[in-house]
């Protein structure tokens, strides 16, 4: 039977320097919204004898879905940020009223949301730019047997830092690969120094 994960508020950083009037509670509520969604969906799947959503989705789809849910929830609870209405626009969250119709293909005032299962928060991006980057690290129980006894998916790390062009390294790709960039060693250290949640 699925269990409902609960955000451990004691693991939040009360001294985190947050931009755009963001509050620690905004992140805690966003994570709890994701937990509640997985509990509701997986309870329904369990009743029908289906595998959990985590076992149904491919890794990239899972990460994208969680990223979208966090973006929507943060936009809902934030005092100044809203969702960027431009499809695949950057950043995901923008300062409300700064851009026409709250949509911009490439803006500067806001926060880009990333999710990954990589401990430490190193995540690939499709653009090297100065930005506020927020990375949520989550873990999925894929080991426990039988599978119906697996622990709920949970967040283990959240980072939010202002990173610049010089904080990235470009990743080599073949002719068919998509160009990406990742924070280099010093860039990742910069990101990790601005932690919001560590469980």
Question: Nutshell version of this structure?
Answer:
Helix content is 28%, strand content 22%.
Account of the protein in words:
With 199 residues, the chain is of the alpha+beta class. It has helices at 24-47, 53-56, 59-77, 185-193, and strands spanning 81-83, 93-95, 110-116, 131-139, 154-163, 168-171, 180-183, 195-198. A hairpin with an 8-residue loop joins strand 6 and strand 7. Helix 1 crosses helix 3 (59-77).
Question: Averaging pLDDT over every residue, what do you get?
Answer: 92
Shape: globular
Query: Termini distance?
Result: 24 Å
Q: Give the spatial strand order of the biggest sheet.
A: 1-2-3-4-5-8
Number of helices: 4
Strand content range: 15-25%
Give helix % range: 25-40%
Low confidence ranges: none
Largest pleated sheet = 6 strands, mixed
Structural class: alpha+beta
Radius of gyration: 17 Å
Number of strands: 8
Could you spell the SSE succession in H and E letters?
HHHEEEEEEEHE
List keywords for this structure.
199 residues, 6-stranded mixed β-sheet, two-stranded antiparallel ribbon, globular
Could you give the topology of this structure?
Elements: H1 24-47, H2 53-56, H3 59-77, E1 81-83, E2 93-95, E3 110-116, E4 131-139, E5 154-163, E6 168-171, E7 180-183, H4 185-193, E8 195-198
Parallel strand pairs: 3-4
Antiparallel strand pairs: 1-2, 2-3, 4-5, 5-8, 6-7
């Amino acid at each position: 039977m699925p269990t409902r994960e609960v955000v451990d508020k004691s693991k939040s950083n009360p001294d985190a320097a947050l931009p755009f009037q963001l509050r620690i509670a905004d992140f805690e509520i966003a994570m709890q919204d994701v937990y509640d969604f997985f509990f509701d969906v997986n309870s329904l799947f369990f009743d029908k004898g289906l595998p959990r959503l985590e076992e149904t989705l491919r890794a990239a789809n899972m990460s994208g879905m969680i990223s979208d849910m966090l973006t929507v929830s943060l936009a809902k609870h934030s005092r100044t940020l809203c969702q960027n209405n431009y499809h695949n626009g950057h950043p995901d969250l923008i300062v409300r009223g700064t851009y026409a119709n709250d949509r911009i293909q490439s803006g500067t005032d806001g926060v880009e949301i990333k999710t990954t299962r990589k401990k430490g928060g190193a995540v690939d991006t499709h653009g090297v730019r100065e930005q506020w980057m927020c990375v949520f690290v989550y873990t999925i129980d894929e080991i426990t047997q039988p599978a119906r006894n697996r622990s709920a998916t949970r967040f283990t790390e959240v980072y939010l830092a202002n990173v610049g062009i010089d904080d990235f390294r470009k990743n080599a790709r073949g002719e068919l690969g998509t160009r990406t960039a990742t924070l280099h060693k010093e860039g990742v250290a910069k990101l990790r120094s601005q932690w919001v949640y560590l469980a």
